[in-house]
Amino acid sequence: MQVGSLVEWQVNGEIEEGYGIVLDVNDIHIVVYWLRIEDETHLSLKDGTVCYPMDKKEISNLVEVVCK
């Protein structure tokens, strides 16, 4: 996962509403700034950043979005 990657949060196979942009990646944390999808066509900024620990459980839930 690299800075600038678009990611989504996955829980038990279901995707929650919202995507994020990776702001920082280091040996301990991934920092993500969240975006919310509104009206299915527009992205808007959502307040705040979230830090995810670099452990297998958290990383398996944070999924990089591949754009085609």
- Which overall shape is indicated by the principal axes computed on the Cα atoms? globular
Most strands sheet: 5 strands, antiparallel
CA-CA gap between termini: 17 Å
* Structural class based on helices, strands and sheet pairing: mainly beta
H-E order: EEEEHE
Across the major sheet, the strand order is 4-3-2-1-5
Low-confidence stretches: none
Count of extended strands:
5
Backbone CA Rg: 12 Å
Helix content: under 10%
Name the quaternary structure: single chain
Mean of all residue-level pLDDT scores: 78
SS field, number of helical segments: 1
- In terms of DSSP E residues, the strand content is over 45%
Layout of SSEs?
Blueprint: E1 6-11, E2 14-25, E3 29-38, E4 42-53, H1 56-61, E5 62-64
Antiparallel strand pairs: 1-2, 1-5, 2-3, 3-4
Quickly describe the structure:
The protein has 68 residues and is mainly beta. The protein has one helix and five strands; from the N terminus they run ββββαβ.
What would you say this structure looks like, in words?
By secondary structure, the chain is mainly beta. Strand 3 (29-38) and strand 4 form a beta hairpin. It is built from one helix and five strands. The protein has a five-stranded antiparallel beta sheet. The mean pLDDT is 78.
